[in-house]
Description:
Strand content: 15-25%
Number of helices: 12
Oligomer: single chain
Shape: globular
CATH class: Alpha Beta
Amino acid sequence: xxxRLLSTLLRSSGAHAPVATSAEISIGMAAYGNAATTRHALSxxxxxxxxxxxxxxxxxxxxxxxxxxFREFARRHANxxxxxxxxxxxxxxxxNAFLSHAQGRLLLFLSNDIFANPSYLRQLLKAxxxxxxxxxxxxxxxxxxxxxPLHNVAAxxxxxKTAYLEFAADxxxxxxxxxxxxxxxxxxxxxLVTRQVIDRIGTVDTRFHGYCGDQDFALRARIAGFxxxxxxxxxxxxxxxxxxxxxxxxxxxxxxxxxxxxVAEALTELQKKYGVAxxxxxxxxxxxxxxxxxxxxxxxxxxxxDYSRYLLQR
Length: 314
């Protein structure tokens, strides 16, 4: 499958041309509120990819018309499923619903504030096809919450869509020969994972809520022998703070305070899971030491969840 995919990508007609796919590619997006940004993200995705890719949309009990936005795009793409939670279950369950029910050989998850482009998709898929030892791949962006200069590419808000496409294509050209960069930990706002990883380690550990489930997932992949890498040639725009800035000031503060508390809780849970002494942040974790432990299915595999009760009928 990967060889056929690579052949298709190399035949693409231009850097700005949508990427041709099949049902072997699954794309997931989750959202809690902020319907306007979600609409923008889906519009950019639909302009960046064609074919019968599987699309899975997860509505995390949004208080606005996000579900109607999802229904609108589902009408435009037959191979779409929508899961709609009846209460706010947060990031890890939203991601888990996608990973647990996706049927593709390559699974791409995008947050609702990630604006895809053809170069980004092409470079990620090409890297996955050329490097089967890589189980999780992510690209660079204008904002990645890990303080890494390799991940964070200086870019202002683009004046036009064409300017954005040209910028992403230029990043792809600049780094077409750059080696893949092995990750210490994953920031899971946008990443691609292979079916081999899901078959081996399962999906997300939902003992975590809004945070650290992505880092735990990637660590288990590394323990199982897969590379987790940065593809520097794959650039995507991330509308930083998009899911906070649209709220009134008092709601922004409540959401930020909740986020700070959730991060602390998740770090404590991660420390307990791996028997690590208290750490100041994820940057302080002994990732390399933890990744060298032997894979134990009982400890490092998490069975996919069943979210079928949230599946909406078309």
